[in-house]
Amino acid sequence: MKHHSSILLVALLLLSALAMSVDANPWNPKKHITTVVVENDIEGRELTVHCKSRDDDLHLRRLQPHRSFDFTFRPTFFETTLFYCSFDWGEGVRWFDIYIQDRDYHICKWCRWLVRRDAVCLTSDTNQACYYYKRR
């Protein structure tokens, strides 16, 4: 029984050391705060936006042209953070994954998305890219 206790103690010490090294790491995603900005870039149309994640519902927003809203969060350590949004400007609902940690984490900490009729465009700290809407 003493042998099992020793193994358990060593395992706990190793896990504690690993946890401390993760918290001290400046690249730890838990330390990285991300802001996503969603802006209506459709002239003459009010945009209805509804964004969610698995854990958070950011509720319905109505944006006039060139108006925006933003939200801030900490990406997960396991790189699984996902926020998705629906967009409606009177021509049918469109869907897009507005933040995919695996895609966006290394691109932007402040991610500004321009919602257009044909695509959603990311203007970030370092680049600009447009993506088509998801088909549902």
TrEMBL record:
Q: Mainly localized where?
A: secreted
Among InterPro entries, the record links this protein to: Self-incomp_S1
> According to its UniProt record, where is this protein located?
Secreted
A Pfam match is Self-incomp_S1
GO CC annotation: what is one? extracellular region
Which GO BP terms sit in this record?
rejection of self pollen
Q: Which residues form the signal peptide?
A: 1-24
Q: Which UniProt keywords apply?
A: Secreted, Self-incompatibility, Signal
Q: Which family is annotated?
A: Belongs to the plant self-incompatibility (S1) protein family.
Matching PANTHER family? PTHR31232, S-PROTEIN HOMOLOG 29-RELATED
- Name the record gives this protein: S-protein homolog
